[in-house]
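Q: What structure does this chain adopt?
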Amino acid sequence: MIPGIMMGYYSIVSTKMSDLVESLRKMKLPDFIIIPVLIMFRFLYSIKEDYIFINEAMKMHGLTMRNFLKEPIRVLEYKTVPLLMCSTKTADDVAISAMTRGMEVGAQRTSVSEVKLGIADYLMYIFIGGIVFIFLSSIYA
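A:
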């Protein structure tokens, strides 16, 4: 599971939203799939930032993980309640942002990003295809 989690983390950190939308459109995915995926990625990024701010505020109040053994309820309360409040506000903000950017089902969008497969992509496809072929031939040989 760790390689999959690492790949997902790297994909989220390194991919721009405009590139993600354009590549999903090039794969001919319908808008009712693209829009929720885009909103989910923006929501997770915003929640990550809120979580960092909450941890900084807790440090200012002297509530660190060292205090977790002494006051577990207080530490959990001071971490989860603001995170829940921020997440509801963030969900509204992200949904409004998606609507103001023209994210509607069936609407045409222009994109600054140009998504094309290069030579490295095709070489990787051939390499992975070769590995799959060797694996399947070793199983059924």
